[in-house]
Amino acid sequence: MPFLEDVPVLGLVLKAYSPRLVVSIGLERVFAKGLAHGFMRFSIQPMLTRRYGLSGAMYQRLSTLYALGWSVNSFTAIADTFALFGYTKRWYCVVCTLGCGVFGLLYGLLPAKESSAKPAAAFMFLTALFLANVDTFASAIYSRRIRRNPASGAALVSWAWGCALFGAMLAAAVQGSLTDHNVTQVGIYIAAGLLFFLSTLFIFNVFGEQPNRVARVEDAKADYIIKRREERAPGQKQHDADLDFDDKKELVKAVPEGEDEEDLAGFVEPEVDSVLWGVIEINKEVVTRNWLIIIYCCLNTAAVVATAVVTILGTRWDMMWACVAMTIAVCGFGFFMLPLIVAKAGTFIYLFNIFYLQLPGVLNTFYVAKPKCLPDGPHFNFTFYNLMNGIIGNVCSIIGISIFAHCCQNLSYRAIMGSSAIIIPLISMFDLIIVERWNMYIGIPDHATYILGEGVIYSTMNMLISMPAMLLMSRVAPRGSESMVLALLSAVARVGSSTSSSLGYLLMETIWPVVTRGQCDYDNAPWLLIAGHIVLPLFIVPLAFLLLPASRICATLDENGDEVEEVIFPDADMDVQHAEADTAASPTRAEWNGTEQRSRVSVDDRPHKSGRVE
């Protein structure tokens, strides 16, 4: 269907990747990251405050468990080193989708009384854990495709995020109405059913994931070729200078895409052992090369589990020390155990979430407070509140995606994320205006003020921050350990959000208390907003220039954050006619002269063909 290539974002993706890959990514993101995650996320506040009757502070405390559940996937992501039934992602995704559905059902089936709140929070944690693994494994599959066609990586990430936002909009529209009719748990049942269906996509390998042994050989070849070309680069450049134009034309015809016999001279395939009669394969090469990352994943997981236990059973001071320990584990150990660029990016993501303080126990409860609790409040119902966050907010997020895909290709990570962090405190002024009721003094309704600030501007800018972070981790992930690095991105972001929410809870319990039940008292809410949403985010700007690479987001990066050219392997199902046409095409003398005059960012200066990647 050629007309699809004219659709924004989708057209860019279809020109670079196969329709099967594009459709499979879209379905997974709509069902898992969009609908299932949306139903769970929009159910947390009404389940904890209405169904189980918790205060705003306790709601903020226990709601962090959902974010913590998304942080444990860094441990299960070591599946890159242990392939199950010949695949490093496929069968793990099957187990995780089924487990997520089961624990989601348990979360929604608990009796509606306050004593069920903590068990519900535990099931919420386990549901998020399995859902995060599904998201991470699927993201790791298409991150390998980005390596094969890095120029279109931003478009593929934009497509994935767009599908997730579309699913989230559907979930918001349905869940808000269910909540207003006091049947919030029905949305959770729908999410469980979608996850059971999603498992069939992985059972039949719709993503087309390569078998583990094939992927390991491909990764080893790419690393070996890069090393060989670096070793012979000085002599090769002198040899190229001595060739005349006709010799260069013959050289291009004779050398295939990506590799040649000289590149692979002396290459030895990586060792892959199998145990339990071939059920599990152990990638020794991945373990040996990334053992520090594996240890870091285990330490991060231990810290997350300990924090979850403290959140459910500990005191407020236990939570404070847990936040300190978590910060040391994430930021301190990262610089000793991770590649430098990964450690810097992870630290930035963590601190970004810390410095934008999460205050759901204040804002979420304020906006939906009943007239008998807060007579002069906005009195939003859940249908409007979820629709604004899930539809208008996500529509603006899609606008942010389109801006990112079409306008930000040649901008640096520092420029995008640093400038976005400057705008966020300005956007937070809209929340302060509503809480102080200044908008009512000048005749602007609460609904209009909320839509303009939180719904429109913040959603657009937040996406311009999230997507570069995702793309950066895809660029710097060591070969064969994509799941681990992408899981670290997700885990660090969620841990930062959870820690931020815990710090907000401590402020609500000690310095600026807020009453959300009975006769409500939000007098301290403005101080929480000023400190957490306006002052603290200003520290993000210098962090962006200190921790993020100055490289463009469209560039392939090495372990130091420098731009390099990626070694690309053609797929077996590449369009043969397109490949043959490119191979047979002979460059003109003007083209050769232009090629020689270009600045070289890699030791491999041969022209690469652009092929369709599945």
Automatic annotation (TrEMBL):
UniProt keyword annotations, A-Z: Membrane, Transmembrane, Transmembrane helix, Transport
Record carries keyword Transport: yes
Pfam families the UniProt entry points to: BT1
Subcellular localization(s) per the UniProt record: Membrane
GO CC list: membrane
Region feature (Disordered): 579-614
Compositional bias of kind Basic and acidic residues: 597-614
InterPro entries documented for this protein: BT1, FBT, MFS_trans_sf
Top-level lineage group: Eukaryota
Transmembrane segments: 65-85, 92-110, 122-142, 154-174, 186-207, 291-313, 319-341, 348-367, 387-408, 415-435, 455-473, 485-507, 527-548
Membrane topology, as annotated: Multi-pass membrane protein
Similarity remark: Belongs to the major facilitator superfamily. Folate-biopterin transporter (TC 2.A.71) family.
PANTHER family assigned: FOLATE-BIOPTERIN TRANSPORTER 1, CHLOROPLASTIC, TRANSPORTER, PUTATIVE-RELATED
Protein name per UniProt: Biopterin transporter putative (BT1)
